[in-house]
Amino acid sequence: MPELNEPLCASTALIDGGEGVRFTVTLRGEDVPAFVIRHDGVARAFVNRCGHIPVELDWMPGQFYDSEGLYLMCATHGALYAPDSGRCAGGPCNGQGLEAVAVEECNGHIYLKAF
């Protein structure tokens, strides 16, 4: 198992299609906003930046899913993203997906993988 950082949240904080948990990650020397959600029972994390124009997706903190809980949606532009991969699923993202962030779930918590 890779070395893990401090937990981002408890596993029970995430339910399929429900609220996500925001956090900050350092990528390429820059602190950027990110989030973790649960989809099909798996915790998945992405940089919180729309592929269309670099704005955060959530309309309220932790609100990343569309009203049906099927897609991740940019509240500003309506771009839709597949929650399993972050790929563009429709709208103005024009094929630009979300950048994935590696997380690990173990011992009842979600962790950012060390890299």
CATH-level-4 superfamily name: Rieske [2Fe-2S] iron-sulphur domain
Roughly how much helix do the residues carry, as a percent range?
Answer: under 10%
Number of domains: 1
Count of helices? 0
Count of strand segments: 10
Class by helix and strand content?
Answer: mainly beta
Biggest sheet statistics:
4 strands, antiparallel
Keywords:
single chain; 115 residues; mainly beta; Rieske Iron-sulfur Protein; 4-stranded antiparallel β-sheet; 3-stranded antiparallel β-sheet; 10 strands; 0% helix
Word description of this protein:
β3 and β4 form a beta hairpin. The protein is an all-beta fold and 115 residues long. The chain has a single domain, classed as Rieske Iron-sulfur Protein (3-layer Sandwich). It contains no helices and 10 strands.
Short note summarizing the structure:
The chain has about 120 residues and is mainly beta. It contains no helices and ten strands. Strand 3 (about 30-40) and strand 4 (about 40-45) form a beta hairpin.
